[in-house]
C-alpha cells in the first residue's frame, strides 16, 4: 500500500532511476518526468511531494517551481549540483521547501522525503464536515488560521501558504508576543538540527510570509523582527 505519491522531475535518467528505486522500496508511489514541462503536466492534487532538479534544459527547475506554486502548495525538494548559499536562497525564494545538493546520500534524501511528506499529510489535509467548529481556528488581529489544516485568511481574504509558511505562522500565532530565535523556528518547523547557515533559510521564509499577510511587508504589523533576538507575532492592538 502506498504511503505517498511523489513526482520526480529530473533530466538525468540514472539519478531519476536511483531515486525511484529507493522510494519505491519504501512504499512510495512514483511518477517520473524528464523535464519541467512534463512535470507540470503530471502534477495533480494527489501528489504529496515534488523532487525537482534545478538545472534542466528548457524550462528550469526554478521556473517549474514558480509554476507549481501558482496552482499547488505541495512541498518541493530541490536537487541541484550547486551548493552555494546564494543558490539555496534563490531556490527557496522560488517557492521551494527544502534543498539537497548533489551528490547526496540516499539516507539523507530519504530523511528529507519522509519529513516533508509527513508534514504535508498532517497539515495540508482537507477538513471534514465537522472541522468548522470555532475551536478549530485561531484568530488574532484579523489573521485567521486553522489549527490543523493549511487554511489562512487575512481580513477575510484567503491566503495561499506553503507548508513551511503555514507552520511558521501557526507556531507564532499560537504564542503571540513570544520571541522566537531563528534556531527556535528552524528546529520546531523543519524538525531538523539547526546550523548557523539555517538562519538565512528562516529569514527567507519570514520574508515570503510577510509578503503574503502584511499590507506593507517592509513595515509589518504582524510579524515583527526583534533585533538580535528573533521574530514575534505582535499581539498588540491596532495602534500598537
Automatic annotation (TrEMBL):
Residue range(s) of DNA binding per entry: 135-235
Name of the featured protein: Stage 0 sporulation protein A homolog
Lineage: Bacteria, Bacillati, Bacillota, Clostridia, Lachnospirales
4-aspartylphosphate modifications at: 53
Pfam (any one): Response_reg
Gene Ontology biological process terms in this record: regulation of DNA-templated transcription
Job of this protein: May play the central regulatory role in sporulation. It may be an element of the effector pathway responsible for the activation of sporulation genes in response to nutritional stress. Spo0A may act in concert with spo0H (a sigma factor) to control the expression of some genes that are critical to the sporulation process.
SMART domains per the UniProt record, alphabetical: REC, Trans_reg_C
Location of the Response regulatory domain: 5-117
Amino acid at each position: 500500500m502506498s504511503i505517498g505519491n511523489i513526482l520526480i522531475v529530473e533530466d538525468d535518467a540514472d539519478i531519476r532511476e536511483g531515486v525511484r528505486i529507493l522510494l519505491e522500496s519504501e512504499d512510495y508511489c512514483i511518477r517520473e518526468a524528464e523535464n519541467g514541462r512534463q512535470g507540470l503536466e503530471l502534477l495533480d492534487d494527489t501528489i504529496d511531494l515534488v523532487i525537482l532538479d534545478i538545472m534542466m534544459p528548457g524550462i528550469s527547475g526554478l521556473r517549474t517551481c514558480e509554476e507549481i506554486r501558482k496552482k499547488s502548495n505541495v512541498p518541493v525538494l530541490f536537487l541541484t549540483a550547486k551548493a552555494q548559499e546564494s543558490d539555496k536562497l534563490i531556490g527557496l525564494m522560488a517557492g521551494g521547501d527544502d534543498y539537497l545538493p548533489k551528490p547526496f546520500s540516499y539516507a539523507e534524501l530519504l530523511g528529507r522525503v519522509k519529513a516533508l511528506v509527513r508534514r504535508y499529510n498532517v497539515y495540508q489535509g482537507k477538513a471534514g464536515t465537522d472541522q468548522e467548529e470555532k475551536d478549530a481556528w485561531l484568530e488574532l488581529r484579523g489573521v485567521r488560521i486553522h489549527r490543523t489544516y493549511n487554511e489562512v485568511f487575512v481580513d477575510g481574504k484567503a491566503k495561499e501558504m506553503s507548508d513551511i509558511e503555514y507552520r511558521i505562522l501557526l507556531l507564532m500565532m499560537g504564542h503571540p508576543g513570544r520571541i522566537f530565535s531563528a534556531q527556535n523556528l528552524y528546529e520546531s518547523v523543519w524538525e531538523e538540527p539547526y546550523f548557523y547557515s539555517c538562519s538565512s533559510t528562516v529569514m527567507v521564509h519570514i520574508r515570503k510570509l510577510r509578503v503574503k499577510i502584511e499590507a506593507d511587508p517592509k513595515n509589518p504589523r504582524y510579524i515583527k523582527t526583534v533585533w538580535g533576538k528573533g521574530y514575534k507575532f505582535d499581539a498588540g492592538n491596532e495602534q500598537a
